[in-house]
Structures
1.
Amino acid sequence: MTVLSSALDPAGPEYRAHREAMLARLADLDAEHAKALAGGGEKYAARHRGRGKLLARERVELLLDPDAPFLELSPLAGWGSEYTVGASLVTGIGVVAGVECLITANDPTVRGGATNPWGLKKALRAHDIAFANRLPCVSLVESGGADLPSQKEIFIPGGAVFRDLTRLSAAGIPTVAVVFGNSTAGGAYVPGMSDHVIMVKERAKVFLGGPPLVRMATGEESDDESLGGAAMHARVSGLADHFAVDELDALRQARRIVARLNHRKAYPDPGPAEEPRHDPEELLGIVPEDLRTPFDPREVIARIVDASDFDEFKPLYGSSLTTGWASLHGYPVGILANARGVLFSEESQKAAQFIQLANQRDIPLLFLHNTTGYMVGREYERGGIVKHGAMMINAVSNSRVPHLSVLLGASYGAGHYGMCGRAYDPRFLFAWPSAKSAVMGPRQLAGVLSLVARQSAAAKGRPYDEDADAALRAMVERQIESESLPMFLSGRLHDDGVIDPRDTRTVLGLCLSAVHTAPYEGVRGGFGVFRM
Ligand code: COA
């Protein structure tokens, strides 16, 4: 074994300062997560309970195996928008009757569970995860359908929800819908497109048009129950396969359905793994508040991989990118971690080679981000930084082993792409509260804008207003800084969640377990043309 040593001094002032800053950010994060948990707030939760109904998260909890973890995804969806944090939908991965499933649950306390633009993005992301990892999907349905005031943004793309359900089914990935309440209009296609459907007595309402719409359209008088109640669908239309007497019965039946799916994982559980030799609690004190100060990612690796055991690849070459082999909760992983921020030609070529090796050996890759991007400047351009960066991006793009990304610190510019940013389809991408991601740093971006404006004024022969320039720079810096922060990015679904650094090993372990539900094989030679 090659156990990593640590140079971290938990008694030192630097560690303490980093830890304090991280704890403050975690407190802010907790406050935002609490908003997602509160959903529509006390008034709507009390009304919902008064109707004898369970809250969305209670439904999820009762569906899961007792004490099973639930890896909630995108809990901050909608953050910074006009919609409630969490976007009226709960999504995540949990174990139901011993089977890892992708679970979605409408939150009826938020605008009747209606789907807003961020909730739609969240639902589509959940389906992507189910597809890539072959996870059965269980939808806990109670929704007012489209959030009507924002229909222009959701109606057309929203059709993909129903398309996905039937494509999952076609791919042999089971889909189960449990209908607890309203599921009208487009929403009726959630049970309509699912393999297995359970409806709750006198609660489920599944119809293309409710009684008022039917009266408007045809003049026919009807009521909810005869038009789309559970009894009618179980006895007459056949849309319901299972009739549940109440919510608990519906969740019990859902567990029985999942137990009988005969859904097998592609790989066996690797069994218990040795914990890291270094304390994960210390992950709080590694990343400096000012991301311009470098930190050694081996300190992070030492606290997340099995037995802190890490065999480095090319440690003496391209040393601002650390690459090497480890296992995490028993699953083999290849790790690429930025060490000193900038990616040079050597680092890019080393990354491309390492990614090829992982593909030859069918080993998943973990990207730990802290990069300001690829090096600029005459010397580096002459040295071929564009083609070497392109080499790394080619390797990441065409690699076929599962990728996981965690943004620890900076993730700027094309460095975000080369390190398997969101657009490069990592199976999962999480951020630490210390992360920042943008096209470049706020100061650099404001400076570039100012230079461009100055040149433009000079070209037109106009005087340049220095005071206005300073004000503009300050404003742009503030704007870019706020748009680089993890809560902002998570709100827009650019990651799958912002996590406590201490949870990194657990979160990645849950992801790796989900990943190993689907078979995978590395690409053997199927890369684009590498520019040499
Ligand atoms: N879009 C936007 N807001 C909606 C909504 C929708 N589709 N459905 C409900 N809301 C809002 C309501 O206006 C209400 O807001 P308020 O409390 O600020 O006044 C809040 O959500 C709760 O709705 P309410 O009707 O009081 O809740 P309920 O639990 O008694 O009934 C529904 C929930 C979903 C059955 C009912 O609101 C409804 O029928 N909505 C319209 C459904 C529909 O036709 N959707 C179109 C499908 S494409």
2.
Amino acid sequence: MIDRTKKEPAAMKITPQRLAILEYLEGRKTHPSASDIYKAVSERYPMMSVATVYNTLEVLRQTGQVRELVIDPEKKRFDPNMKPHHHLICLRCKEITDVHRDFKLTLLENERCNYEIIGNHVDFYGICPKCQKKRTVR
Ligand code: ZN
Ligand code: MN
């Protein structure tokens, strides 16, 4: 059963705040957290509330316009790039960089556990150039 009482009206209502968040996310290559988004957007829209940012992100997630990343469990990050891609993640500053390459990863018959495979995602962990520089200065 689909519960239409809550989600759909909210998803369709286009408010200036919601537009501002969409504009901020559109084409963005960084992977901002909700508080990053709030900080940036509330500069232009002082009426913006943290709750609006969270609610909007939830609607965008449910409607497939943004992906929620669970890299840092204490600080969810959001990815507006819905094309299949992988990530480079800095372990120091938690910067996330897109990697666009099809690694042609496959599972053998006996590894697949009878799953119908839909996709995959690879995270590369490391130290970004900025953090490497900081390390040599110290
Ligand atoms: Zn870094
Ligand atoms: Mn990404």
3.
Amino acid sequence: MAELQEVQITEEKPLLPGQTPEAAKEAELAARILLDQGQTHSVETPYGSVTFTVYGTPKPKRPAILTYHDVGLNYKSCFQSLFQFGDMQEIIQNFVRVHVDAPGMEEGAPVFPLGYQYPSLDQLADMIPCILQYLNFSAIIGVGVGAGAYVLSRYALTHPDTVEGLVLINIDPNAKGWMDWAAHKLTGLTSSISEMILGHLFSQEELSGNSELIQKYRNIITHAPNLDNIELYWNSYNNRRDLNLERGGAVTLKCPVMLVVGDQAPHEDAVVECNSKLDPTQTSFLKMADSGGQPQLTQPGKLTEAFKYFLQGMGYMASSCMTRLSRSRTASLTSAASIDGNRSRSRTLSQSSESGTLPSGPPGHTMEVSC
Ligand code: BEZ
């Protein structure tokens, strides 16, 4: 039988009648600029329609970066600060990005009719194959925050072969226990939905500090025209099932995972516990100082650098792609890490607030990094 051979196909773009090569180039550039501004699509799924926005052009043999936002946010309010951060461009130019908006969270989304059955988080995860099929993508690197991190983890558990890596910020893999429910019900008696969601996103210290960022997000959530939809996503989050992760057990994430949490974040304990349930040879744990509840908003620089090392560990970012600064930092940290490497699989590495440096860890080390 003839062997299959990999062939390089170069796309031939015929000129339109009367079109000069210069005009064709300009049209192509315009199309590319349009792609870089993001193209929004919707697909029908068994659980209703879902909207997502695609940036960049697909790169052969590269997974797409697929993001999933937290409750109270949409892809822009959750990820724009990170993905438009200067140093991030060096990374994302190598990947197509698919930013999913949970149903009813997209800009201008109409309010669902009364009695609408909002999908559970498991069902939100089950919508992802429809998105990938529509785009004809076979593999992703997932980046999720809070409820979005849970959705992507659930997807990774059910479709392990399509997930090359996961960045999980503020993940809580456990279902609410009865104590959590009691506390939730009590808070609900005195607080509005928007205040409860703000308490999920930010630490009490941040909320009482009332910085410009907090004012901005308080304003966004309190005045959201789709607040009723947000409440439905919030309810699905609170009704999530336990992911039942078990280190060494049947239910575990198989891909490299970077867990991220702020050291003052409301979900710190949950992320620490999640770390204890994952395979230490596949997991990096990044605990960020001075980042509050939403490190992707407050510390995009540190997170970008950590993401770069995470991708490098997966073999995607050759050091030649890195800035000179990052390269020199990696060199010094790699030698430091190798001293530590013999001691234990699970490493704790610290760094100062200013440096923002992160160790380049080969997959196979759990790193707790206090930035
Ligand atoms: C991106 O380039 O992936 C991006 C741009 C704007 C908002 C969010 C993401």
4.
Amino acid sequence: MSDSTTPAFSLEFFPPRDLAGQERLVRAAKQMLAIQPKYVSVTFGAGGSTRAGTADAVRTLRNLGCDAAPHLSCVGASRQDLRDILQAYKNEGVRRVVALRGDLPSGMGGDAGELRYANELVSFIREETGDWFHIEVAAYPEMHPQASSPSADLDHFVAKVNAGADAAITQYFFNADAYFDFVDRAQAKGVRVPIVPGIMPITNHTQLLRFSEMCGAEVPRWIRLRLAEFGDDKASIRAFGVDVVTELCQNLLDNGAPGLHFYTLNHADAPLAVWKELAV
Ligand code: FAD
């Protein structure tokens, strides 16, 4: 994307776990190069994926010509672990990273690591590597599920930005007003970095409800009811999902969102269908 007024699209992938998954990732990424993504990112630790899996997927995507950003979470990690990972990415010429606290696997307890929150990770990355990395952090328009209040969560977000983040990607949401309200409140606290909405395509009713329950994203009642009515009719769910998500994206872009970050789940079809409908 050539100028700051053109919305920037970015794409999120997860590390494949087997050969079929690897082929799916490459296929999806190749199809989605049509969008000319500003960058792509690869999740870390989520669903049991490993550090090596993230690094491998980043390499695969960079070999396809994408600017690829690994996600890096500090939960369960020592400073030395994080230093080693950052150095390895630096040695490979990676210039972006998505910095997160992450979550310990539920019910497993264990060592929380040396850094407690994402703002400490951002500070650590800046201390260790200066301006080498462009750092993205997470934002929660509908509040992070563990936060004590929306204003406390906002303050914690502002702390991450002040620690040196260059941009933010939001948790997904289906209510655009939550995003606009969050951006207004962040800007009122002096935040000037882009806050890019994270967009979850709607393709699978059960999976959407499960993810949303875990991450605290609200699926509006009318969407849940429509999806329930479609039952196993995948084509109708898909068509409805493309309509709903396209309308959300258009509203966001028309009202000032600086870009869109698609959670692809390693499938190109739904994000591409939305992108093709957008008037940008
Ligand atoms: P933080 O910003 O540290 O916030 C976590 C919680 O702590 C919030 O409730 C916040 O309000 C609170 N908090 C922050 N600072 C303080 C403080 N000083 N005192 C008290 N409370 C505080 N997870 C993965 O495992 N792998 C991934 O690849 C991944 N990618 C993601 C990408 C995006 C765009 C998003 C939105 C989320 C992603 N997640 C991923 C999920 C994320 O790890 C979880 O939501 C995690 O619970 C919080 O991470 P965070 O970086 O937002 O944490």
